[in-house]
Design goal:
Layout: H1 3-24, H2 32-38, H3 43-50, H4 55-63, H5 74-90, E1 95-101, E2 104-110, E3 116-120, H6 127-130
Antiparallel strand pairs: 1-2, 2-3
Length: about 130
């Protein structure tokens, strides 16, 4: 091989590496439906439901649900969830995965085809938090 062939071969290898890096950092945007689905794991989302539930029914619901940090705005929750999903998706992860984003632990469920399923935080609240 001569120098020109070596350079050309190196350029091709660099281009292939560049494409692989670009593909692995693809950004996926959550749909409105995705966002609507995990809103039930926000404090504000549950506060809306709590208005119409008895203390007993609310307690049952709270017992089996975890939430995002109530101090986070909806905008931040969406931002952090999207960031978490993109990191995990680009790592090829599926199923339930926990990841820390900006100091918050977020549980993200990714379907086997790589699409977003749902997300939720690790916080537990009780009836008195909503009354």
């Amino acid at each position: 091989q001569n120098i020109a062939e070596d350079v050309a071969e190196g350029s091709i290898k660099n281009e292939i590496k560049k494409n692989i890096v670009q593909e692995s950092t693809e950004v996926f945007t959550l749909s409105k439906n995705n966002i609507q689905y995990f809103k039930k794991h926000t404090f504000d989302g549950m506060a809306e439901q709590a208005k119409y539930l008895t203390d007993e029914n609310l307690a049952k619901k709270l017992k089996k649900t975890t939430f995002f940090n109530k101090d986070l705005s909806e905008e931040r929750i969406i931002q952090y969830t999207q960031e978490a999903y993109n990191i995990l998706r680009n790592q090829g992860k599926t199923g339930l995965n926990s990841i820390e984003v900006n100091g918050e632990i977020i549980n993200v469920c990714i379907k086997t085809d790589g699409t977003f399923d749902t997300a939720y935080g690790i916080y537990k609240y009780d009836v008195k938090d909503f009354r």
